Amino acid sequence: MKWAVVLYALVALSECIHKIPLYKGKSARETLEEQGLLEEYLKTHPYNPTIKFNPVLAQTSDEPLTNDMDLSYYGVISIGTPPQSFKVIFDTGSSNLWVPSVYCNSYACRQPQKFNPSQSSTYRSTSQTVSIQYGTGAMTGILGYDTVTVGGIVDNNQIFGLSETEPGSFLYYVVFDGILGLAYPSISSSGATPVFDNMMNQGLVSQDLFSFYLSRDSQAGSVVTFGGIDPSYYTGQINWVPVTSQTYWEITMDQVTVNGQTVACSGGCRGIIDTGTSLVVGPTNDINNIQAWVGATTNQNGQSTVNCNSIGSMPEVVFTINGINFPLPSSAYVFQRMSGCSSGFGQDYNDLWILGDVFIREYYSIFDRGNNRVGLAQAA
């Protein structure tokens, strides 16, 4: 009888852990390169990754997002009854859910998949509007409520944005449709309840956390897990780091070293673990110093290139967080494309560090809302 109770408990627990496959599609950068448009695009749309963490914009209650050309991991969710499917970025650097709608006539809204509220029997409209600032413009729209299904989790009465306008240049070249934000509710535009908060409030997850595994070598295999931690995706122990600000998933970094020498973040700095940023981004001077140490050169458009033949001899870049070293080998921070090899470090005119997909591919990342902490472990 006792074993039956234990087995029942384990089954009940597993039913509240949900895995959503993430797919690695073609990035906007790759599309622009193939069409011979990248150089011209960068001249008029410079890379501005930290705009979505700009406190001035945050004070206006508009939630800023960046025009990140290297974003490529997306998952599929559905909205409405019957369900309408959308490819979304699961973004720990923002808090709103929005998708393109039939109300959008912008150039970027050329994708056939648009949410049509008239085709959903569970949709409920509101008079609220939403505006989300990008580096190249703003997504504006209206807010509505409907059933959102994420990897088997049926999230009832979820508020989300239906786009009416979208910034044309960036979103036209991406493979995903919208954004599902996983940061704290304090930064949600228009005060909309984030998806994961709604899941927690309805008791739809066994633990108030979610975790990311981003595959390093293949198009498939990446996953976001809601409500649990999967030991098959990491080796060794989990190192827990406290969240220092319940806005984004912000932590404190100790330093960045190369060959035992402090090359950046001297004396400590702010860092954000962000699945919605593709690179590791830091202040201009610090990133330039790292690029020099690893042998990368940066052109006038901010693109950093490295010699593909030197990858094997390039040093580790070590991020020390909460007293623990997290090294990034060259295999992690160098992109190898048909056009050549480039560095996975990006610069921005800010004192903030963003540990994006380049870092997360190397370290299984757990976002624990119940204890306001981030767990990092060596990815399997």
Task: Give an overview in words.
With 380 residues, the chain is an alpha+beta fold. The chain has helices spanning 2-14, 28-34, 38-44, 55-59, 168-171, 195-201, 284-294, 330-333, 357-360; strands at residues 18-24, 73-79, 84-91, 97-100, 124-134, 137-150, 153-165, 178-181, 209-213, 222-226, 234-242, 245-246, 249-258, 261-264, 269-273, 280-283, 297-298, 304-306, 317-321, 324-328, 334-337, 340-343, 345-348, 353-355, 363-368, 373-379. The protein folds into two domains: 18-204, Cathepsin D, subunit A, domain 1 (Beta Barrel); 232-379, Acid Proteases (Cathepsin D, subunit A, domain 1). The protein has nine helices and 26 strands. It comes from Acipenser oxyrinchus oxyrinchus. GO terms for molecular function: aspartic-type endopeptidase activity.
The biggest beta sheet is recorded as: 9 strands, mixed
Count of DSSP H/I helices: 9
How many angstroms separate the termini? 37 Å
Roughly what is the average pLDDT, rounded to an integer?
Answer: 84
Beta-strand residue percentage: 35-45%
* Uncertain residue ranges: 1-14, 55-69
Instruction: Compute the number of strand runs.
Output: 26
Helix content: 10-25%
Tell me the radius of gyration: 20 Å
CATH class of the largest domain reads Mainly Beta
Which term fits the overall shape?
A: globular
CATH topology of the largest domain: Cathepsin D, subunit A, domain 1
Oligomer: single chain
The helix/strand class is alpha+beta
CATH homologous superfamily label of the largest domain: Acid Proteases
